Amino acid sequence: MSQIREIKCPQCGKWTLWAGDIDDRCLYCDSFLESRRFSREVEKKIRGEVRKENDYFFINPTDGPFKRFCKNFLNSLRWLVISLQVAFFVFVTIIIVLISLIPG
Ligand SMILES: [Zn+2]
After folding, report:
1. What are the residue ranges spanned by the domains of the chain?
2. Of these four, 26, 68, 82, 99, which has the most CB atoms within 10 Å of its CB?
3. pLDDT tens-digit readout, 22-35
4. pTM for this prediction
């Protein structure tokens, strides 16, 4: 689908080949030919992943009060579980350290 054409590099001003892909680089200075579009694509991708990671039950502005309450509750429950896991891990580590400190 990609069509190779010649464009002027926005960085060095030399004519280089561009296939229309977002990650095409200049043949001379190795800079991205569509740096603005490229960074926007990356940003969009990162933002999507962050949202997936953080907002497990993402609250939509259109959600009713009950749905909002449920999602908030489930979110805090999830964080509670994570903190409990961390606390348990710390607790076990302390126990192990204490046991190793006991002479015997
Ligand atoms: Zn260039």
Report:
1. 1-53, 55-104
2. 26
3. 778 889 998 888 77
4. 0.36
